[in-house]
Amino acid sequence: MKKQLQKNLAKFAFITVLGGSILLLAGCSKGGGEEPQDGDMTEITVNLAGIEGEISEELLLSSSVNGKAKSKQVPQEDISAYTLPDFDAQVAQPADDDYAVNALQKGATVRHTSGGKRMVAVPLASRVRYRIVLYRANGMFHASQQGIVGTQLRINVARGETYRWYAYSYNDTLAVADLADYNNPVVPTSSTRDLITATGTQNISASGNTPLNIVMLHRTNRVAVEINTMGMFSTLTGVTVTLGGDYFTTGGNCNLLTGAVTGGTTATSPVYTVANLPNLPGTNAGDQKVAYYYTVSNNQIPTMRVTLSSLSVTPYGTSTARNFTSSAAFQFNVTAFTSAGRSKKARIDLIESPLTLGTARWARSNLFLNGNSTTGHNPYRFYSTNAYQIDRESYWPWRGLTPGGQAGTGDPCLRVYPLGAWRTPLPTEYQSILSTAHTFSTAAGRPIIYTASTGTVSPYPSNQLVFYANGFGNTIALINDVLNIGLDYNQQGTRAHLWADDQILNVVAGIGTFYYLGTNNPGGFLDPAAQNTQVVTALLNNINVPLLGINILSAGYRNVRCVRNPAVPTTTVP
């Protein structure tokens, strides 16, 4: 009897607790109502189609967003050039890109035109986390689930019903917290994370699963600062990026229904290192990193100061880093944002420092076309070390854009990144160094060493301007009316041949141009050019092949040593 009484009391307690729980759940809903039974349930399949943003007509026409390259040029950037103790830099002031740094990456497509604006849907990166919150039509909270881009997300829903949904993400792989209050769907902003959201309603099919396609929108403004080491022909392996003040506002709340952001306070500016600097979207070489700063303010930042310190780069194809001890500070004018969800991008191009001698600032080593192809990443490069070498990719025709191409087509030094920072030397610039202090070495390649050159030594291998006796390649020729472009080397190990850039001159034997000739060949009176340097003329042969429709200007193949382009105004920073 006693045991039966205990069972009845336990049963009563269970029913009481269960009833209280049901009442509690009902009290949490906005409109009440019962959840559908299992037989009425189906699934909604979530698909994040991307992030929507506006792209300018200029960027659209100059890119291949639509899969077709356009010829219209992007407007000229506001560029400032700096000479720093350890390296040089060119700085592009912030310009509106409306998140176009993402929009130009592979996979971006023009989504629609609305009110004359070009909109693009940019796919989210794999493994980005997001959260979906669903409410029934009567306002009752239904579900909140976290999803991962690349993994299918399915949520149980009732057939035939209509749901209000909210989606939000910080566009990274970190966990996305649930709403603090389902009755007040707001989420916080961040100065280091990109808040993207979307909302809408979805009718659920009476049969089969229902797809939910979502395009997110940016809710905060962004300043992107790209740190680019392509001009150092290196990957960025170490850096600390600090700001000169607390320029940004964060801590505001974004209303998921309206997208409006309210509140916010001044945020402490983050400090970035190479470990938390992502690659610029669409790149993977490690020489284009970007620091992102987010703000809920639309205000101008006229003097945003960015300092780079503890800089370390590793030249392409090597494993030895170059560590720089000095820091460099740059100032930017971030103009006002026209509305929320906009982006501006600045760029800092770091450039290998030159060596000064005579009237020019010289590259430390010869120009080559990486892989002898213009299609690879950053193809126009300087060798990481200056040495005797006979690589085909470093012998150029006069004013030729490719080592195996036609002469007279352009200045290859202008193609070195950043474009226009370098050019081929003038004959007068070679002449300005002929009488300066130099020695003739008997080492391999018999280098000519200009001991009077000045420039930074460490962490570069040397601060001496050195030309190696790499010789030259024979001219293109016609043999039995067949074009012969085979390369035979001449004077390797005895003479240095380097092209000068000039207008074609009339010489006694026909048409000619200039090049630098230096030799360390102890030939005595049998070799008038022994132990000297000079600027001489080269004949340019006009080879015409009517049957092939080819008219080739040729004078053989020589090395190219670039000089800094004085047409780019430069400020010296101590």
From TrEMBL:
PROSITE patterns: PROKAR_LIPOPROTEIN. This is Fibrobacter succinogenes major paralogous domain-containing protein. It comes from Sphingobacterium bambusae.
